[in-house]
Amino acid sequence: MNNQNSPRVFIVCDQDSTAPIWGYIIRDKGLVAIVETSVERAMQRSTEEIPDLIVIDLNAPHPQRIELCKKFRSISASPILLFLPYNNEQEILEAYQNGVDECVVKPISPAIFLAKILAWSKRSWSEPMKPHHTGRLRLDPSHRSAVSKNKKEIKLTNLEFRLLHLLMSRPGYVFPNEEIIETIWGAEGDVVLLKNVVYRLRKKLEEEMNLTELIKTWPGGYSFIDD
């Protein structure tokens, strides 16, 4: 594989024994691994690198993990994969609210780690995407954001953007759950994941942009409705 065209994975891991393993696994598959063990250096390099995927695996306090996620999300549209040392629902919800695309509770085997890296690297938004524009909302792929007609803009996570992009591609059409899941997640998705993303997306549109009833729920599916 030509490294110039290979996905770039930015790994922030503060465990000296684990970070080299993650880097080796990724490079062994022909991807570019950018590994940082210092949160401070990772914050500095975040403005220099343009990764296709961001992996955060820190044993630091939860607020420090969230702050790093917010920093990356504020400057990058790339998917963020966050590893957590334990299962805490409140912390997981907070992570999703701050732009994380997937939370993974450890321990995780090298095989599963690699499978997730390869799956997410294929979903990078480096490929061109068609913008959508309706009466009340414009979808901007270059910034992975939604913009209302009064110029109010909100950033979307990778999954939120994929869902809204799909629904807006055919306004009024009821996309079956199975079609949405296959398009966004492939074999890894399920209805529960879909419902969670719909909930988060609606909340952003309604609370931050005051746009209601854009995404309508139907028996077995969803549609985008605009005036």
Provide the succession of SSEs: EHEHEHEHEHEEEEHEHHEE
The separation of the N and C termini measures 47 Å
Q: Low-confidence runs (pLDDT<50, min 5 residues)?
A: none
Q: Which overall shape is indicated by the principal axes computed on the Cα atoms?
A: globular
Q: How much helix, percentage-wise, in residues?
A: 25-40%
- In total, the number of strands is 12
Biggest pleated-sheet summary: 5 strands, parallel
Structural class: alpha/beta
Helical stretch count?
8
> What gyration radius follows from the Cα positions, in whole Å?
18 Å
Instruction: Order the strands across the largest sheet as they lie in space.
Output: 2-1-3-4-5
Average pLDDT level: 86
Strand content: 15-25%
